[in-house]
Amino acid sequence: MVLSHATIVIPLRIFMPELPEVETILQSMKPALTGQKFTSIDINRPDLRTPFPSGLSTIPLNETVVRLRRRAKYILLDFQHGWSLLIHLGMSGRLFIDSATRNIPLRRHEHLIFWTDNGCRIGLVDPRRFGMVGLFQTDQENQYPPLKHLGLEPLSDDFTTDQLSSICASTRVPIKNVLLDQRRIVGLGNIYVCEALFKAHIHPARTADSLTYEELHHLRRFITDILQSAIAAGGSTLRDYVHTDGQPGAFQELHLVYDREGEPCPNCAPESRPSHIRRMMQSGRSTFFCPHCQKI
Ligand SMILES: [Zn+2]
């Protein structure tokens, strides 16, 4: 497939892409890259957050990309010869996919460019360089340091109420912190956790082991629903995110509590005296919640 126009996937401001954005980016890359080969790779600096792997200019070359997939917020490209390329966009990373025939000049902070045999130019731009690129042997994935301690995938069949229950049963850490802990469950950022806890009527400071099985069942369902809605809306971090057609992501309009401090709670607003959304700090991050709907 040869692209006839630019496909731009880009968080506009400094705002860490969360799981739905990464999934959306991945879906945009699949048609351009699946079944293709890299014919050359331009490496314009030695590192991002970590040094580029030493085999980056040779190992992926002329090998067919058999699969693109996601693990947590890592984009993984599996090659036919048993190696995989890992890309993490950090806080400010963007991938630009263009037709090679457009003769795009080097962009600012464009640290890597992959050229494919179907005429694509894939540029990795990362002004703050918190991203990373890695290479590993696909069958060694469980030993590869960035991936080996990752927890459950919330969009996989493994994310069941029983699994969530066993994760929560053994810890007195606040449920919000448990959901943000990548060693337990991956890819749930602050926005999605606030929204899921609000929908499940669970106070973010409750200890994980205090939640009933029924509460965890609702919470799990809302987590899955919210992530799927955000992906359907084209990723989420919304005002900061533009998808392939250049339109801003629409998921921000679906946020019920996140960044809405002081606004009437959308759940109890039909009552004569609705509560207002409050903000509190947990482990250095803002939590938004309704004190009426989410009792401690
Ligand atoms: Zn409320």
Automatic annotation (TrEMBL):
<dbReference type="Pfam" id="PF06827">
    <property type="entry name" value="zf-FPG_IleRS"/>
</dbReference>
<dbReference type="Pfam" id="PF06831">
    <property type="entry name" value="H2TH"/>
</dbReference>
<protein>
    <recommendedName>
        <fullName>Formamidopyrimidine-DNA glycosylase</fullName>
        <ecNumber>3.2.2.23</ecNumber>
        <ecNumber>4.2.99.18</ecNumber>
    </recommendedName>
</protein>
<dbReference type="GO" id="GO:0140078">
    <property type="term" value="F:class I DNA-(apurinic or apyrimidinic site) endonuclease activity"/>
</dbReference>
<dbReference type="InterPro" id="IPR012319">
    <property type="entry name" value="FPG_cat"/>
</dbReference>
<keyword id="KW-0234">DNA repair</keyword>
<dbReference type="Pfam" id="PF01149">
    <property type="entry name" value="Fapy_DNA_glyco"/>
</dbReference>
<dbReference type="InterPro" id="IPR035937">
    <property type="entry name" value="FPG_N"/>
</dbReference>
<keyword id="KW-0227">DNA damage</keyword>
<keyword id="KW-0862">Zinc</keyword>
<dbReference type="InterPro" id="IPR010979">
    <property type="entry name" value="Ribosomal_uS13-like_H2TH"/>
</dbReference>
<keyword id="KW-0378">Hydrolase</keyword>
<comment type="similarity">
    <text>Belongs to the FPG family.</text>
</comment>
<feature type="binding site">
    <location>
        <position position="128"/>
    </location>
    <ligand>
        <name>DNA</name>
    </ligand>
</feature>
<dbReference type="InterPro" id="IPR000214">
    <property type="entry name" value="Znf_DNA_glyclase/AP_lyase"/>
</dbReference>
<keyword id="KW-0326">Glycosidase</keyword>
<feature type="binding site">
    <location>
        <position position="109"/>
    </location>
    <ligand>
        <name>DNA</name>
    </ligand>
</feature>
<keyword id="KW-0511">Multifunctional enzyme</keyword>
<dbReference type="GO" id="GO:0008534">
    <property type="term" value="F:oxidized purine nucleobase lesion DNA N-glycosylase activity"/>
</dbReference>
<feature type="active site" description="Proton donor; for beta-elimination activity">
    <location>
        <position position="73"/>
    </location>
</feature>
<feature type="active site" description="Proton donor; for delta-elimination activity">
    <location>
        <position position="285"/>
    </location>
</feature>
<keyword id="KW-0238">DNA-binding</keyword>
<dbReference type="InterPro" id="IPR020629">
    <property type="entry name" value="FPG_Glyclase"/>
</dbReference>
<feature type="domain" description="Formamidopyrimidine-DNA glycosylase catalytic">
    <location>
        <begin position="17"/>
        <end position="131"/>
    </location>
</feature>
<dbReference type="InterPro" id="IPR010663">
    <property type="entry name" value="Znf_FPG/IleRS"/>
</dbReference>
<dbReference type="InterPro" id="IPR015886">
    <property type="entry name" value="H2TH_FPG"/>
</dbReference>
<keyword id="KW-0456">Lyase</keyword>
<feature type="domain" description="FPG-type">
    <location>
        <begin position="256"/>
        <end position="295"/>
    </location>
</feature>
<feature type="active site" description="Schiff-base intermediate with DNA">
    <location>
        <position position="17"/>
    </location>
</feature>
<keyword id="KW-0479">Metal-binding</keyword>
<comment type="subunit">
    <text>Monomer.</text>
</comment>
<feature type="active site" description="Proton donor">
    <location>
        <position position="18"/>
    </location>
</feature>
<comment type="function">
    <text>Involved in base excision repair of DNA damaged by oxidation or by mutagenic agents. Acts as DNA glycosylase that recognizes and removes damaged bases. Has a preference for oxidized purines, such as 7,8-dihydro-8-oxoguanine (8-oxoG). Has AP (apurinic/apyrimidinic) lyase activity and introduces nicks in the DNA strand. Cleaves the DNA backbone by beta-delta elimination to generate a single-strand break at the site of the removed base with both 3'- and 5'-phosphates.</text>
</comment>
<keyword id="KW-0863">Zinc-finger</keyword>
